[in-house]
Specification:
With about 130 residues, the protein is α+β, with helices and mostly antiparallel strands. It has one domain. Strand 2 and strand 3 form a beta hairpin. The radius of gyration is 17 Å and the shape is globular. The two termini are about 25 Å apart. This is ATP-dependent DNA helicase. It comes from Boletus edulis BED1.
Length: about 130
């Protein structure tokens, strides 16, 4: 599952997919696999080569999302800013998490294409 917006309205926080392989960014350029960055998609060969130069031989996940698109997911920055807008903390990670289980809070407001729900322990109408 993506944890950051990559393509507004299409691949956003909460989009799910399946990791289908790992490859380097150079292999992605050769295979014409789009590269998802925090600035959006890099599909042109020139853009992709610029991104590829940053990640050298790192094996990165190629994800097939439920809408059919296949993207190489590269690390992006996650920041925490204070009230005055200054960066307090920053980390760099691939914007994916396992999605075999979601909390109610994470899934609230999402359109889920497939879902398996255990309603065996509900105790009040409307909980489902």
């Amino acid at each position: 599952m993506l944890i950051k917006n990559m393509v507004q309205g299409e691949l956003v926080n909460g989009s799910v997919g399946q990791v289908i392989r790992f490859c380097t960014s150079q292999e992605a350029v050769r295979n014409k696999t789009e590269i998802a960055t925090e600035d959006g998609l890099r599909g042109s060969e020139r853009d992709a080569r610029q991104v590829a130069a940053r990640y050298d031989d790192s094996q990165l996940p190629v994800v097939r999302f439920t809408n059919g698109r296949e993207l190489l997911c590269v690390p992006v920055d996650f920041t925490v800013d204070n009230a005055s807008g200054e960066t307090e903390a920053k980390r760099r990670q691939i914007p994916l998490i396992l999605a075999w289980a979601l909390s109610v809070h994470k899934s609230q407001g999402q359109t889920l294409e497939r879902v398996k729900v255990d309603l065996g322990r509900i105790f009040e109408k409307g909980q489902g």
